[in-house]
Amino acid sequence: MRKIPLQWAAFALIALSVLLTGCSDKLQWYVVSPATETGRANLLFMLGGLKYTLLLSITAIVISIIIGLLVALPGISKNPFARGFNRVYVEVVRAVPLLVLILWVYYGLPIMLGIAINVFWAGVVALALSDSAFEAEIFRAGIQSVDRGQIEASDSLGLGYIDRMRYIVLPQALRRVLPPLGNQLVYMLKMSSLVSVIGMEELTRRANELVTAEYRPLETYTILILEYLVLILVVSAGVRWLERRLEVKDGR
Amino acid sequence: MSQSDVSAPVIELKNLSKFYGSFQALDDISLNVAAGERMVICGPSGSGKSTLIRCVNQLETHDSGQVIVNGIDVGKNRKALREVRTNVGMVFQQFNLFPHLTVLENLTLGPMRSRKMPKDKAVELAQHYLERVRIPEQADKYPSQLSGGQQQRVAIARSLCMEPKVMLFDEPTSALDPEMISEVLDVMVELAETGMTMMVVTHEMGFAKKVADTMVFMDAGKIVEQSTPAEFFSNPKTERGRLFLQQILQH
User: Fold this and answer.
1) How far is CA A215 from the centre of its chain?
2) Are residues A96 and A74 in the same domain?
3) Is the pLDDT of residue B197 over 50?
4) Residues A129 and A17 in one domain
5) Rounded to an integer, what distance in angstroms lies between the CA atom of residue A149 and that of residue A154?
6) Is the residue at A139 inside a domain?
7) Which of A37, A221, B17, B169 has a Cα-to-Cα distance from A21 of 20 to 30 A?
8) Partner-chain residue, chosen from A149, A163, A167, that has the shortest CB–CB distance to B94
9) ipTM of the assembly?
10) Are residues A193 and A84 in the same domain?
């Protein structure tokens, strides 16, 4: 289990190099070669987007998990209005394409609310909002998968709603939703590239700018793919580490 | 067994009825359980005995009638319900231990969160009850590392840590392998000897003969017979009671 991400990385690299050697005459690696000064400068320029890709994704993920949980809880309520709120939120938010949501938040929301919103926060809001609907469904599934007997046991001990959620239901639910949550994390990291359209200086935007300056799309975008690949392998390894840790704690 | 103090009932059920759709699970049941009384409820499956016992701490809500525990009407409000639940222990057929918590954490959670007991006192209490159910050495294990009998004894200890006035047992040995049944029953017999008020749904007639003050026989959501074990086992008053005893005692 442990070695799978590494093996996949190796496989992807080999596949990529085989693919690219087939057109070696068309490749001009100098644009991103660490051996030359311009290549180094270009590489650093591209990597400069990493900061915002990470900052944007992490902020959005944290917010979307909180909103997702707050939307999931009414979804399992006995109150039909609470459940209705959950359904409407999930269905509406889930139906908006992320790119459209980014444009709407950046260009539309300031007009509606009469506020200024910068590129970064527009990106965070759009990503977090879009993702929260998916998180909400993941959390709802996780919470509903917790055995009814667990709730009865916590009721019979006189625990209130908050204690029951905090100590009994959520810890067990979280463990089960970790794999789909990890999926969502990876998805979000990739989707952050869409925020480049409103001018966020993240990885994809930097690559686009370099392509405009150097006219070497194949090399530049190949490097961009590798950047995302490495980033996501790190995240996957992190999620798997977390899964293993929680398993050990369960004593199973 | 001698008849215990019957002055003030700990549990009063008044004209309790419950429906699942059009199926009537409980049909106008009235029943008192006195302090220190050990009541065993038996009956064929689907007779409503589990539903009845689960109405006492409102894991099932009733449709009409009243449930009064220690003088508190459970249906009054949320606060009354929680008050009742902290005073009523419950042991389930499927144990329902918290799998992500250690045995000790299973035991200390209720006292710490519901009774606001400081941790060191809760741990002390937990160790005391683990000794009573004879598994003090398993405190740091997780439930999945224990046998079924051990898990059920932990579940009993978990309820006892709330220092309840009444203990409810909902078929506590039905999910156990035969060789583990007696270790759980032994603990329950000892508990009965301490004077704990108990309401037990079970098919273990040996246990009933040994500890019960009152036998309640249910069928089709009604109490068909209520008598002492001596009477019930030697001379059931109803045909249905006789038939039931024949069926479960024939092997």
Assistant:
1) 30
2) yes
3) yes
4) no
5) 9
6) yes
7) A37
8) A149
9) 0.91
10) yes
pLDDT exceeds cutoff 70 at B187 = yes
A32 and A146 co-located in one domain:
no
Residues A86 and A150 in one domain: yes
Closest to B153 in 3D by CA, of B112, B181, B179: B181
Residue among B77, B81, B113, B145 with most chain A CBs within 10 A, to mutate: B113
Which residue, chain included where needed, has tokens 């016992």? B53
- Both A176 and A233 in a single domain? no
Same domain for A188 and A91: yes
Q: What average pLDDT does the segment A131-142 reach?
A: 96
Check CB contact of A164 with chain B, cutoff 8 Å: no
Banded model confidence at residue B4, pLDDT cuts 50, 70, 90: very low
- Asked whether the whole model's pTM tops 0.90, one would answer no
Please check whether residue A90 is in contact with residue A76, taking contact to mean a CB–CB distance below 8 angstroms: no
Are residues A81 and A17 both part of a single domain? no
Question: A162 and chain B: CB distance < 8 Å anywhere?
Answer: no
Between A50-75 and A170-191, two packed helices, what is the crossing angle to 10 degrees?
140
- The HSE-up count of residue A221 (CA atoms within 13 Å, CB side) is 9
The distance of B29 to chain A (nearest Cα, Å) reads: 22
Which CATH number does the domain housing residue A140 bear?
A: 1.10.3720.10
With contacts defined as CB-CB under 8 Å, which chain B residues touch A159? 109-110, 113-114
Cβ distance of B110 and A250 shorter than 8 Å: no
Residue with the bigger pLDDT between B106 and A33: it is B106
Asked if the model's pLDDT at residue A86 lies above 80, the reply is yes
Domain enclosing residue A138, as ranges: 53-200
State the Cα–Cα distance between residues B186 and A3, nearest whole angstrom. Answer: 50
Chain A 132-151, residues with CB within 8 Å of chain B CB atoms: 147, 149-150
Domain count, chain A: 2
Q: Is A248 inside a domain boundary?
A: no
